[in-house]
Amino acid sequence: MPECLFCRIIAQEIPAEIIYEDEQAVAFRDINPQAPVHVLVVPRRHLPNLGAAQAEDEDLVGHLCAVAAELARRERIAKSGYRLVANVGPDAGESVHHLHFHLLGGRRLTWPPG
Ligand code: 5GP
Ligand code: ZN
């Protein structure tokens, strides 16, 4: 059984509201949403974070971004706007060490982030 929380969600060992799946990516709603739309887009393959991505992972990272943009359209926040965030390391508050992009929208987001 994988130790990683998101690997376990991907394997459907832990329940989550999965809204998208393909061969490379899975997306599910964040358990503690920070905006009306808060979706996590993750690779099926375990990568600890964006900083661990290698040159051969560039297509995968690009695909995750494209999935996020498509989900923004499906969630009807493409026109109002949204933010795509990858937290890397302690200063950014990375808490789950499986690469994930936060797709946030549905309200006015402040800048700069806290
Ligand atoms: P990070 O802080 O690593 O950038 O983001 C981790 C995110 O995972 C947080 O927003 C947190 O709410 C979310 N999260 C943590 N545990 C679970 C869980 O069991 N299920 C879901 N759906 N999201 C989770
Ligand atoms: Zn994992």
How is the secondary structure organized here?
Elements: H1 5-10, E1 18-21, E2 25-29, E3 37-43, H2 58-74, E4 82-85, E5 101-105
Antiparallel strand pairs: 1-2, 2-3, 3-5, 4-5
This protein binds guanosine-5'-monophosphate and zinc ion.
Zinc ion is lined by residues 4, 6-7, 46, 98.
Structure description:
- The chain is of the alpha+beta class and 114 residues long.
- It has a single domain (5-105), classed as HIT-like (HIT family, subunit A).
- The chain has two helices and five strands; from the N terminus they run H-E-E-E-H-E-E.
- It has a five-stranded antiparallel beta sheet with strand order 1-2-3-5-4, with helices on one face.
- A hairpin with a 7-residue loop joins strand 2 and strand 3 (37-43).
- It starts with a helix and ends in a 9-residue tail after the last strand.
- 24% of the residues are buried.
- The chain binds guanosine-5'-monophosphate and zinc ion.
- Residues 5, 16, 28-32, 40, 87, 93-96 line the site of guanosine-5'-monophosphate.
